[in-house]
Amino acid sequence: MSEPIIKINKAEEEISVIKKIMEDSKKAIVDNGWHYIYWGLIVTAALIANYIMVLTNTSINMQGMLWFISMTSAAIIEGIIERKREKHVKVKTFAGRLLNTLWSGSGICMFILGFAGTVSGAYNAIMIFPLISVVLGAAYLVSGVIQQVKWLSALCIFWWAGSILLLLYPGLHSMLIFAVMIICFQVTPGVIMFVQSKRELKLLAA
Amino acid sequence: MDTKQAELEISQIKKIMEETRGILIDDGLGFIVWGLLISTGLFLTYFSVLGIIDWSVSNYAWFVLIGAGWIFTIIQMRKEKRENKAVTFAGKVAGAIWGSAGITMTVIGFVGSYSGLVKGYGICPLMACVLAAAFFVSGVIYNQKMFRYLGFGWWAGAIVMFFWISPHTLLMFGLMMLFMQVLPGVLMYSKWKKEIKAAEYKAA
Amino acid sequence: MTDFNYHEIDDVIHSRIRTAIMAVLISVEEAEFTFIREKINATDGNLSVHLKKLEDHNYISVKKEFVMRKPVTRYAITDTGRKAFEDYIKKLESIIRK
Question: C85 by DSSP, 3-state: which?
Fold first, then answer.
């Protein structure tokens, strides 16, 4: 009696290994782009607020606090939304896990570059924008490879070119240039992804 | 088809799938070569700061070392394209991660220091921060927790180097390179060698 | 609800060599002819015939190119092929659990 049970267990174990490999090799994941839109709009709002603070010379010493509060609270809110969303996700793919790790890793990296770098005095606060741009370029390149979306990878060229431009010609305008970059190369791609995912979902439903 | 046949087929499919994926792991050579080149540059700069060697030596050395690194990477890529008969999803993503991390560090290192906006001691923590992110994501690809911990180690090192304003951070970064990049690379290389040998033995 | 019928078995995949080819290709992005041949221990002629059958059913795609002036043929699984292989595994699973 016990031999067939052992055999079935072995076969089921083998099936689960096969399924895991099949899941791992799946690259296509539907991203609705909300992360791009969410972060893009928050960063743009913080940039405009910071620009106005500098222009009007009001609460200049609160600049760091503005960024710390806006970024930390945005990250906490996103974490809560993600946890809720994860409960409804039926299939977890390797590509999805990779994408999550990529953006959380890039987020930690940008957080340290933004805060530790300026607080320690290693560089001027205006340097944050080219540094964040260069990291975003890398993140977009890898994201495009993971999602198999070539135009998403190609955005890295604009981020890196922008980063070099901001490094060579720094100034107050850096904030505005960075805000325009965020709108063009983060919010807009996010909206495109959102529209595409809606269309795909409609097709699937049909 | 009966149960026995189905079981046999499942066994064969699993074996083929595991063998196909198993052999295609990273050989770790990139970690070793880049780690050794960067740590050499860091130690030379450290000696320049201490006044042991002339600054011109370490300045020129950086161009040679980074150039050598990229030449090695291009040769490796060409070799892989010629010899690798299969492309995996994980391999493609790993290439994108380390390639983009390399470009990021080159932009920060050269443009950042050339423009004079990043103070000399700011370069090391910046590099460490980018390396940390690359190790952190690689952990998922190589399915190794060690890489994720290395990511946190590099981030911790970056924070220390940001606040510890001292020429000794160059020595610290060089040692981190040896222990947190070259050493894991050596471990990967020996694992890869073992897998290759096992595959050859199986084939024989 | 899925449209998968547990009583039908996919004859295109259900052959020792074609199942092996699909198992190799589902594990990678793309693979050269020689890579598949080494993995499944088949002869050139035999492998070509089976690859052609899978290609005819749109289960795999073929890309021919020159690398270092040498012709290289690369194969990759298509979405149709992936779905068919997943269904095939489900079928085997249902037989075992019967």
Answer: helix
B-C CB pairs within 8 A amount to 71
Hey, are the CB atoms on C29 and B87 less than 8 Å from each other? yes
- Nearest CB partner across the interface for C89, out of A8, A18, A27: A18
Cα(B20)–Cα(B14) distance, rounded to whole angstroms?
10
Residue B57: domain span: 28-81+90-184
Contacts of residue C26 in chain A, CB cutoff 8 Å?
Answer: 21-22, 25
Give the pLDDT score at C4. 46
Q: Does B202 touch chain C (CB under 8 A)?
A: no
Quote the pLDDT of residue C3: 47
Is position B130 within any domain? Answer: yes
Q: Show pLDDT as tens, one digit a residue, over chain A (206 residues).
A: 455 555 567 777 778 878 777 776 665 556 788 889 999 999 999 999 998 988 888 877 888 888 889 999 999 998 898 888 776 665 567 788 888 899 999 999 999 988 888 888 888 888 889 999 999 999 999 999 988 889 999 999 999 999 988 888 888 888 899 999 999 999 999 999 999 888 877 776 76
Domains identified in chain C and CATH numbers: 16-97 (1.10.10.10)
**Residue B204 within a domain:** no
pLDDT digits (tens, 9 = 90+) for A144-195: 998 888 999 999 999 999 998 888 888 888 889 999 999 999 999 999 999 9
Chain B interface includes A183 (CB < 8 A): no
Q: Which among B122, B132, B139 has the least Cβ separation from residue A109?
A: B132
